[in-house]
């Protein structure tokens, strides 16, 4: 395991050391062996995958209970960012956990539609993203691969060289769209 994939060079980010944590093994490993390592970490780099699978094992391993107490920054890519949200929407449930559903960790109060308008993911177009967001009970960020969200002390910041949109559900049944240029009201 090199961490130097061409599309995801995690080890190229710098840092003194890089460790690997396998969530599925944690339930059988004594917490005294892995919790101190997490507490000492500055950053948790979490690569892409299935958000429902990651959520299940994050909870089952005990990591979900530790996350709010750690001083480390969570850097999640794709589904690994989505796992921090309250829910991912049924469209993104690939693996069905024993509890089922689309609920995730809920450590932030918004959802994420990743890879917006990605050339290799034709279904991740803006129209589909807006339709997905219209079904979400919380605000949703529709983001391309040049966009990230940063959450610090409850404040969300969008960092982008690409394009993104914030969709916020309204109680009256309408949706409000925010993008870089305008506000527009749209009936679902």
Explain what you see.
It is a single chain. With 188 residues, the chain is α/β, with parallel strands linked by helices. It is 20% helix and 22% strand. The longest helix has 11 residues, at 51-61. The protein is globular and about 50 Å long.
List the SSEs and their pairings:
Elements lengths: L30 H10 L2 E4 L4 H11 L1 H4 L6 E4 L2 H4 L28 E3 L12 H9 L5 E4 L3 E6 L2 E6 L3 E6 L5 E4 L4 E4 L2
Parallel strand pairs: 1-2, 3-4
Antiparallel strand pairs: 4-7, 5-6, 7-8, 8-9
Task: Output the keywords.
5 helices, two-stranded parallel ribbon, 5-stranded mixed sheet, 188 residues, 2 domains, disordered C terminus, alpha/beta
Query: What would you call the shape?
Result: globular
Question: Could you tell me the strand content as a percent range?
Answer: 15-25%
Structural class: alpha/beta
Percent in helix: 10-25%
Radius of gyration (CA) equals 17 Å
Number of strands: 9
Tally of alpha and pi helices? 5
The total number of structural domains is 2
Termini distance?
A: 46 Å
Task: Kindly report the oligomeric state of this protein.
Answer: single chain
Strand arrangement, major sheet = 3-4-7-8-9
- Mean pLDDT metric: 83
Flag low-confidence runs: 180-188
Q: What string gives the helices and strands in order?
A: HEHHEHEHEEEEEE
The largest β sheet comes out as: 5 strands, mixed
């Amino acid at each position: 395991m090199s961490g130097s994939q061409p599309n995801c060079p995690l080890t190229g980010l710098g840092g003194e050391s890089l460790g690997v944590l396998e969530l599925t093994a944690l339930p059988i490993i004594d917490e005294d062996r892995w919790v101190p390592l997490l507490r000492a970490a500055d950053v948790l780099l979490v690569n892409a995958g299935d958000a429902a699978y990651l959520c299940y094992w994050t909870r089952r391993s005990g990591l979900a209970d530790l996350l709010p107490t750690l001083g480390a920054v969570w850097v999640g890519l794709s589904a690994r960012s989505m796992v921090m949200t309250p829910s991912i929407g049924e469209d993104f449930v690939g693996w069905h956990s024993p509890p089922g559903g689309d609920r995730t960790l809920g450590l932030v109060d918004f959802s994420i539609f990743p890879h917006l308008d990605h050339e290799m993911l034709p279904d991740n177009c803006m129209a589909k993203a807006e339709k997905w967001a219209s079904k979400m009970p919380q605000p949703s960020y529709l983001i391309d691969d040049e966009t990230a969200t940063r959450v610090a002390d409850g404040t969300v910041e969008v960092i982008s060289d690409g394009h993104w949109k914030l969709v916020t559900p309204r109680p009256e049944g309408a949706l409000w769209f925010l993008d870089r240029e305008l506000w527009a009201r749209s009936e679902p």
